[in-house]
Design brief:
heterotrimer, A mainly alpha (252), B alpha/beta (476), C mainly alpha (194), A: 252 residues, mainly alpha, 2 domains, two-stranded antiparallel ribbon, C: 194 residues, Arp2/3 complex 21 kDa subunit ARPC3
Chain lengths: 252, 476, 194
């Protein structure tokens, strides 16, 4: 998985994402999810890291499903009654569908992101897809500082404890604290950004010269097959949904 | 034929009322090694940025002219390479090889040639790591050498360096000097450097240009620097070599305030731990904690300060320090309880600022304690006076100079009168004047009975001030 | 000094890099917001659409980028970077996040475009935030909450607009004021006013 072109991974995640989102049915989502889970071992992500990445998704998806459970359009017999909410069969189906859909769309994206080197992706976007190099590289250089800025965030939190303003006050005070900490991070970020911009210009960035590339971005037939494979999964999912009559175009 | 020539050059930033620099004239020929000296804020960095062609036209207006081989700096991109002061904010890409290649890519160098230059540059600066080594994993000194390699790969005729060792520990500074010497010898490039700690470069420089607010004050070889100019320079904060340091006297501490037992400090997500230490911090004593880069000094400072949990062992406050708090572990104290017991001053003052004016910054701690407005006012005025920040009372903390910010951050800790003060690299990046101010401030605090722990790699600081020295890692 | 005609709408290096780091910082703040208000959001998911009130916490990058850089595409670009970083940190999930970022940014961008990229006052900020809020609501309803009843949809859109206007529009405007006062915006027009 690490040797597949980042652009191919982007396409794969995109195709699956868009196609699955076109329909609101549990079948297409489930079929795709089964394929994705089956292929997961080949992703080359160590189990522990995989769990760490996937867990937030597994937790959050059902909550979104909850909205469907409680507020879906009423269809079918009432299955349960919880306080002010009458839950119909249709709503249960909706909740399950929503949850499966989120999982099926997000899982490949999450995993693919984790196995992609940002510089390689940037190379691909600028060299092969011809996105403006200045923006791609500027974004890349800034995103490289992510680790640094997360450290800044932690230090800002510790600093507030040292300054005596880290605890107490209830939810409103807590919100204000988050706000001032965010403000501090943004100030530090803008200063870092300005310095980085100077450093980049000092290396002749944005000079009126045609840029060359030290690394070659490639898209081989293997990558093409990868995208085809993803498209195949998407198509199979759709076909299964249509065959079982579950296909339900989302804007209806 | 002069490589670099300035003729009555000046620059005024749009936002400022007065020019940053005016009437600068000099000529520098190929191969010279120039040290640019002058007071803080006189505009040395601005001049270097102008040379490199990175001063935006939209930022200000130029007077006079600046030429490199007859061309203006903007047209001569790539002829002047610039290494900046902060190791963190000039790394561009994640892998070492890619970062060094960046300048070449921008200049349109053909691919095969790029990697050839990258290898050469890395070996010249002595950075022998694999090309796919992570740039984030490099030490500060290595990052500076990385920046130098990145500049070198562009094959510049002039290499400008803006306080390149300011944020480095002694080992990193020496390694950088070696790299710069090697590069200068091997390529014959002209070197133009701004530095405060001059003794390191004194034997390297062939020429000194002293900048003042009205123009060039003095221009000549290091050996022929006249005494009067030397005095002016020292008053302006430049560390000239053979500087006499104030005499140090050892003080004996009194009550123990904090002890560390078999303590290993480290960050929560990281497996890396500092070496185990045992220490006792006493009132009226300055303890210096030294050690090589990366050994965990900052983590230790944070742990002693009750901000981070000890990974192994314990931090225990004495009854004297604990006072009315429920626990003896500073980590368990509430944020307000820390204020009057332990003050922590971070390496980066900016991370600690929480207000929009200097005055409210100083008032924040007392306010959190719930003191009366009168008491707060008194304390703040006292501190403003003591720290020479009175004129800046309504300025935004971020607009202060490095030295002023550091004094302010010490002030914010002092505002709540903690018994113990922990400072992380208090003299980092300071010129001679602000260094002396910090030293005398800490001396006074010690005389007043505070306990002070200073994490530092500054040997002069340790020699002048430290009563106890703890060496973390390496030889005892 | 030679005179040059600078295309008013061309992004300088500092524009690109600062917009990008604001995006990155915003992504981190999104994560912190999610941590702090995730539980509240979970609790609100039992209400008919009030979760959208918290949505603004994921929108402010758009207007913030726009107000600082003041060039076409700034709102979309900054929000997109913030969304990408969100996805990287793992607080949101993958492709859907990117799409949301794009659409939300577009909502703010359209408002700025409507004013011909010439107006950068508090009203355009609030309006642009509201625009991002509307875009967010529509995106969420189609993608994450399809099939819910009209009541939910209405509440969701209204809450989205309010949250967008306040958290996604008003707050960024004040942030820019604070940044200007700290001297961080000296290379931007936003730092030279007031």
């Amino acid at each position: 998985m690490n040797t597949i072109s980042p652009l191919a991974k982007l396409c794969a995640a995109g195709i699956l994402g868009i196609v699955l989102l076109l329909s609101l049915d549990p079948v297409s989502a489930l079929v795709a999810l089964i394929f994705e889970l089956a292929l997961l071992p080949w992703a080359g992500v160590p189990a522990r890291r995989l769990l760490k990445i996937v867990t937030p998704l597994l937790i959050a998806a059902p909550f979104a499903g909850l909205a469907g459970l409680l507020y879906g359009r009423d269809e079918g017999d009432v299955v349960a009654s919880l306080g002010p909410w009458n839950i119909t069969k249709g709503e249960v189906a909706l909740a399950v569908t929503i949850t499966l859909r989120i999982l099926a769309v997000a899982l490949p994206a999450v995993v693919l992101f984790a196995t992609t080197d940002p510089t390689d992706l940037a190379d691909g976007l600028a060299q092969l897809w011809k996105l403006p190099a200045r923006f791609v590289i500027g974004a890349l250089a800034a995103i490289r500082m992510l680790g640094l800025m997360r450290q800044d965030w932690q230090m800002l939190r510790l600093a507030r404890r040292a300054r005596g303003v880290a605890d107490g006050g209830g939810p409103v005070a807590s919100l204000v604290r988050l706000g001032t900490q965010a403000m501090a991070l943004l100030t530090i970020a803008v200063r870092r950004g300005s310095l980085l911009a100077t450093a980049m210009e000092a290396r002749a960035f944005d000079a009126p010269v045609q840029r060359t590339w030290a690394r070659v971005a490639m898209f081989t037939s293997r990558d093409a097959w990868f995208v085809v494979g993803a498209a195949a999964i998407a198509i199979i999912a759709v076909v299964m949904a249509v065959l079982t009559g579950a296909w339900n175009f989302v804007i209806s | 034929m002069a490589t670099l020539s300035a003729h009555e050059w000046g620059w005024q930033f749009s936002a400022r009322p007065a020019p940053a620099l005016s009437n600068i004239s000099f000529e520098v020929t190929q191969g010279e090694r120039v040290l640019l000296l002058g007071a803080s804020g006189v505009g040395k960095s601005t001049l270097l940025r102008a040379l490199a062609g990175v001063l935006g036209e939209d930022e200000g207006t130029q007077a006079g002219s600046l030429h490199i081989d007859g061309a203006t700096p903007e047209k001569a991109r790539g002829t002047v390479g610039l290494v900046l002061q902060d190791p963190e904010n000039q790394v561009i890409l994640e892998r070492v090889g890619d970062d060094v290649a960046f300048g070449c890519e921008n200049l349109g160098v053909p691919r095969e040639e790029i990697w050839h230059r990258v290898e050469q540059a890395l070996s010249l600066v002595g950075l022998n790591v694999p090309l796919n080594h992570s740039t984030s994993a490099l030490s500060g000194g290595q990052k500076q050498r990385l920046a130098l390699a990145g500049v070198l790969a562009m094959k510049p005729e002039i290499i400008a360096l803006d306080e390149p060792t300011a944020n480095l520990d002694p080992a990193g500074a020496i390694a950088l000097k070696l790299a710069v010497s090697t590069v200068a010898d091997a390529t014959g490039a002209t070197i133009v450097m701004v530095e405060h700690r001059v003794e390191l470069w004194w034997d390297f420089a062939t020429r000194i240009i002293v900048l003042g607010s009205e123009g060039v004050i003095w221009d000549g070889s290091p050996q022929s620097l006249p005494a009067e100019t030397a005095v002016v320079l020292e008053a302006a904060g430049v560390w000239l070599p053979h500087k006499k340091l104030p005499e140090a006297s050892r003080h004996q501490g009194t009550t123990v305030l904090l002890t560390a037992e078999n303590l290993c400090a480290g960050y929560p997500d990281s497996p890396v731990l500092s070496p185990e230490i045992n220490l006792s911090v006493r009132a009226g004593e300055i303890m210096a904690i030294t050690g090589p880069n990366g050994v965990g000094k900052t983590a230790l400072a944070l742990t002693l300060g009750g901000l981070m949990p000890a990974q192994r062992g314990a931090v225990i406050a004495s009854p004297e320090l604990q006072g009315a708090a429920k626990y003896s572990n500073p980590l368990k104290w509430r944020s307000k309880e820390l204020l009057t017991r332990v003050g922590s001053v971070f390496q980066a003052p900016e991370q600690q600022f929480i207000s929009a004016t200097v005055r409210s910054e100083l008032a924040a701690g007392p306010r959190a304690l719930g003191l009366s407005p009168d008491e707060i006012e008194t304390r703040v005025d006292e501190l403003l006076e003591r720290l020479h920040l009175k004129d800046l009372a309504s300025a935004h903390p971020f607009t202060l100079s490095g030295g002023q910010q550091r004094r302010l951050s010490v002030g914010t800790a002092l505002a709540t009168k903690p018994q113990l003060l922990i400072l992380d690299e208090p003299t980092f990046g300071q010129d001679a004047v602000t260094w002396a101010e910090m030293v005398s401030l800490l001396s006074e605090l010690r005389a007043e009975g505070h306990a002070i722990v200073a994490i530092t790699h500054d040997e002069a600081f340790v020699r002048t001030l430290a009563d106890t020295v703890i060496k973390l890692g390496g030889e005892r | 000094m030679h005179a040059t005609t600078v295309n008013k709408f061309r992004w300088r290096t500092v524009d690109i890099v600062v917009a990008s780091v604001i995006g990155v910082a915003s992504g981190i703040i999104f994560w912190a917001w999610g941590l702090a208000y995730g539980p509240l959001s979970a609790a609100l998911s039992a209400t008919p659409g009030l979760t959208a009130l918290l949505g603004g916490g994921w929108l402010f990058a758009a207007v913030l980028g726009g107000l600082i850089v003041r060039k076409p595409g700034a709102a979309i670009y900054t929000e997109l970077i913030a969304a990408t970083v969100s996805a990287l940190i793992g607080s949101q999930w993958g492709f859907g996040t990117l799409m949301s970022g794009l659409i939300q940014g577009l909502g703010a961008e359209l408002v700025f475009a409507l004013f011909l990229y010439a107006n950068w006052n508090i009203f355009t900020a609030v309006l642009a935030g509201a625009g991002a809020g509307v875009a967010m609501s529509i995106n969420d309803l189609v993608v994450w909450y399809p099939g819910v009843d009209a009541g939910f949809q209405t509440v969701y859109v209204i809450c989205g607009v309010i949250s967008g206007a306040v958290l996604g529009g008003l707050v960024p405007w004040f942030i820019v004021r604070g940044l200007a006062r700290s001297g961080a915006l000296s290379r931007f027009a936003a730092g030279r006013q007031n």
